[in-house]
Specification:
6-stranded mixed sheet, single chain, 5-stranded mixed sheet, disordered N terminus, 28% strand, alpha+beta
């Protein structure tokens, strides 16, 4: 790796507004462009610092003396090269980030800055600003895009309350987070989102792509989970940082290609939710179903974790709060236990009361004005969780019967308000009642069977498996052709099968080819415009 270290002759005093007083995030900054009279803001123009250090792809500008000196500027041990170790580590973390995003995951690098900063390496300014990317000017490096060249600020001392004696953990997170913001600028620098939710949550998620064992992003989860009833895309502040789990869900189920596709759609679309909706549609995926499943995944974290959900969910510091827990039946009518904002959610748990040969009967009343989605997860004491997802139009009700309640530890009801571009109220409301019937009948009543979009994927059994496995699914609609696709861990399709899904329980038997290596494989089952995905472990 090529490195240079150069002492600059002069130190220029910064402008009257101290950049140390700037407290905005990159997302906040790109939103401010909509009303700015000049760009970049005066307080965030490129500062002149004492020295610089070049890596293969980055030029890091910093001070070694004075109030703005980098952390332990006198420590030069690893390596002994005339550069403070803190700056060496920063260079390593930035190069790791670029290699991950560009070389491994296929994102486009930021456009060059026409030699500003001294050359075309990406410029980093080490100051009191802990982390910020400034889009500077439109670039024609990628024709047909609203791409911007940019530069970044990274803090000179990133010790914090979680690591009061060690700045390196937060330095890793900041380098990976901010450089992903720079990558975003290669697609579109300024969107028309009301909050920069997609830009921030994807940048937090990207930290895991580079430093999987770092887990600094766990600290943001309480800010999202404790307010998960709030809108994903209208809620700013730390809520949008904690919602990185949405990108994690997309990554685990659809690969990094899907997240990259959203940014590719943003090249020509003004809002992130529109880009996301188009990406879902082009992948023959149903946004409403996918989001309902994601919201249900958030329950299966911390002490509630089960295999098949977030890979690191057992290590999350908390799960979502519950609007109600029921142990005694009938429940009576429960009215609006938690109002939810658009793309927010509420959670209710029904525990098995221990009555033999029983079924749980749930009567659900939707909002007068808005559609809702109800996801019901049957959670046995052991074995996989199975889901039914039900679309409830405005001013409609739903009755669902869940058989063999005595064999389940509990049933999770997740209620979400699907995306709507314009709303007349801040929140949607619902009510329900539940009872236990000792005369088991069927899985659903006629009312619920008529609800479109009911598609339950029960996973594959056995799992892990050796040789062959069965994928069980339930299709509660008219007979429809299905396609089953199997992918390896890199996302390459290695096999497929087609058939007809009949109303009720269906099963696909799949035998692995003898020449396939053992390991994790992913599968996708597509029926009538819906798609579900799963993961299987093949052992020999």
């Amino acid at each position: 790796m090529r490195t240079t270290y150069k002492i600059m002759a002069a130190v220029i005093v910064l402008h009257a507004i101290s950049i140390a007083d700037i407290g905005c995030s990159t997302g906040d900054l790109i939103l401010s462009r909509q009303t700015a009279t000049s760009w970049p803001p005066l307080a965030l123009t490129r500062p002149s610092l004492q020295v610089h250090y070049d890596t293969e792809n980055f030029r890091i500008h910093f001070d070694i003396t004075g109030n703005n000196a980098v952390y332990e500027s006198e420590v030069d041990l690893n390596p002994h090269d005339g550069v403070p170790d803190y700056v060496n580590r920063m260079g390593e973390y930035l190069e790791s980030s670029r290699f991950s995003y560009v070389n491994v995951h296929g994102f486009d690098p930021p456009p060059p800055d026409d030699g500003l900063g001294g050359n075309n390496l990406y410029d980093i300014y080490v100051t009191e600003i802990s982390g910020l990317v400034v889009p500077e000017f439109p670039s024609d490096h990628y024709p047909g895009r609203q791409a911007y060249s940019s530069y970044a600020f990274i803090g000179r001392d990133l010790r914090n309350q979680h690591h009061p004696d060690d700045p390196l953990p937060f330095l890793m997170a900041t380098c990976s987070h901010e450089y992903f913001h720079a990558v975003q600028m290669a697609y579109r620098a300024f969107s028309r989102d009301e909050t920069p939710w997609w830009y921030e949550l994807s940048a937090v998620f990207a930290e895991e792509l580079v430093f999987d064992d770092l887990n600094e992003l766990y600290y943001y989860l309480p800010d999202y989970y404790l307010k998960i009833d709030k809108s994903l895309y209208l809620t700013g502040g730390s809520h949008m940082y904690g919602s990185w789990v949405f990108a994690q869900y997309l990554y685990q189920n659809h690969g990094i290609e899907f997240i990259r596709r959203v940014f590719e759609k943003l090249i020509n679309l003004d809002q992130s939710l529109v880009a996301l909706s188009v990406a879902f549609a082009e992948g023959n995926l149903n946004f409403v179903v996918e989001y309902a499943e994601f919201m249900s995944w958030n329950y299966f974290t911390a002490v509630n974790w089960r295999p098949g959900f977030f890979e690191e969910g057992a290590d999350f510091p908390l799960s979502v709060p519950l609007a109600r827990i029921h142990d005694i039946y009938p429940t009576g009518m429960v009215v609006n236990p938690k109002a939810i904002e658009n793309l927010g959610g509420a959670y209710v748990v029904f525990n098995d009361p221990g009555i033999p040969k029983s079924e749980l009967v749930i009567d659900f009343n939707g909002d007068d004005d808005y559609p809702l989605v109800v996801s019901l997860g049957s959670i046995p004491d052991s074995g996989p969780v199975t889901f039914g997802i039900y679309f409830v139009p405005a001013d409609q009700s739903l009755t669902v019967r869940i058989p063999r309640f005595q064999d389940l530890g509990s049933v999770l009801m997740t209620v979400t308000w699907p995306f709507q571009g314009f709303t007349i109220r801040d929140s949607a409301e619902f009510s329900y009642r539940a009872d236990v019937d000792t005369n088991e009948t069927s899985i659903e009543t006629a009312e619920s069977a008529a609800v479109p979009g009911i598609f339950r994927l029960g996973g594959n059994h056995p799992n892990p498996f050796n040789g062959a496995t069965c994928i069980n699914f339930e299709w509660n609609s008219d007979p429809e052709n299905y396609k089953f696709e199997l992918m390896d861990a890199a996302g390459r399709k290695i096999g497929e099968a087609v058939g007809k899904a009949e109303s009720g329980l269906n099963r696909i038997r799949w035998r692995m080819a003898d020449d396939l290596a053992c390991g994790v494989y992913f599968y996708k089952l597509s029926i009538g415009g819906f798609a579900r995905t799963g993961r299987m472990l093949y052992l020999k």
